[in-house]
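This part of the workshop introduces the protein records we will be handling. To make this concrete, we reproduce a full record directly below:
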Amino acid sequence: SSNSNPRLRFWVPSTCRLGGIRVRMSHWRPRACVLASTAKRGRGSLACAGLVACCIAARPGAEAQAMKFDVFDVVTKLIPDVQQECYEKLFADSMCCITSEVEQGIHRLPVNRPNTLWYCRQMNRCWDTDNGAGKRGEDLLWTPPGATCSSPRILYIHGGSWMYGSPHTNGYPSLASKLSKASNAVVLTVDYPLVPVAAYHGIINASLDALDWLAVHGPKGQPCARGEAPIFVAGDSSGGGTAVSIVLRAWARGPPIAGAFLFSPWLNLLCDTPTYYHNAFGSQPLPGLRKKAYFGDIVFRDPPIDNAKSYKTTALEYVGGDDSMLHDPFACPHCAKPSELRDLPPMLIVVSGTESITGDSVTFARKANLVGGQVYLDMYPGMWHDFPMYSGGCGSGRPLEQALLALRRTGDFVSSVSEAWARDSSDASKRGEVCKIATGDPGISIFYGTEAQKISFSAQCESARASSRGAVVAPPSAPREWMYFLSGGFCASVAIFVFRLIFPATRNVPVAALDDHSPIGRDRRFEIEECRSLSK
């Protein structure tokens, strides 16, 4: 040990244990660099496992306190425990763990609209017989307390590859009730005929009929005047792609749409975006722990080519076997030219940063924003397909913070657009205009779901107005301390010298410029200056 420099102290562990060691660091000073070597026991000998360097900046005015540093903590605390638990359960069963609890106080009403009856039977090759064989076509209407005819209304198109799912199963009662509560909106989940009972045109027409019904029916199904409330279209997965098709179709037929929001939408029927490759599933054992690290698409784990082929086979069935429809801009919004996406209503897209179809959302958002669109894309690295449906934490007893954040921001988006719609409903040119994130344009935001990043949609807008650069600023409650971890097998003095040489000014870096648990300078959000320059 050496204490000649008050800013440096070294500890060498005197005891070891299999798989790692707990290193006790007694007192440290603000902005002190502390080094500790770690070791693990080999076969009868002590083997060096590496070097850990921690550079700590204390909260201004805070007193230095004793702390413990555990090698295991570095591994297991990189992500929340509930997220790791979800990974393990999804790896064992990719169809498990969707939250089923329905929000209390939200009124549930079965709706049987005229001419909606269809049958799911083996004789017509309907695959969804486990979710209710026989008569189908009953929608569900969810109404929050205090809703009126002027309250927002949401038409929700469920996912399931157009072959599975219903408003009554697969976690959709829970999701619809949570959306109704978060947005204070009336939500109609439609039981459209599944493939192959109906194909693209039949599903679109059934959804447009539901949209027409919702335009003149409000809370608990009571009749309301057309145009009295803002109407939203929403969906997840395959239903998200259909929701965009409805938005594109509704400009020619149907009531005006105030906005749309999508969860993990499947927008590219050609199934050839690069994220099929880059987000392919993989896993890595964690040395010394009986756990694995998982990365990529943990729900759709086939190799990239097999995954893309499977998706495309399903897409071809969706369009009734007509290969030319895979390129149709209405059926395949990803295939639309930027000019065909003009005048879209405001949209919010919530997607995992690590699923196979992430690229669908990114490409669509950039195309739409090139021509003046208002598409806001929230990306959550480390999540999985349709993760907002797992807000219950996969049965862990703890909530999945990323899912709660996504639902909260979705509700805030609906409220913001609804307020703008009510304010500007007399002027069609301003209908649905909401505050612009970043430098006057909608943007792509990245969220890790930590406590410091529980930023609402409206708060993000306020931050954008207050900042000349439009950076997403952490809320005041965000902690001021920050920590980096640098590991290697070099001696302590060399590591400190190199660290201080490369990062001479790290102690002065503002918190707003950093992402939690990430290297210095990594932005929270993809910049969209490229799109802005291209549009000019």
Notes: The chain has a mean pLDDT of 75. The CA atoms of residues 198 and 220 lie 29 Å apart. The radius of gyration is 26 Å. The longest strand covers residues 46-57.
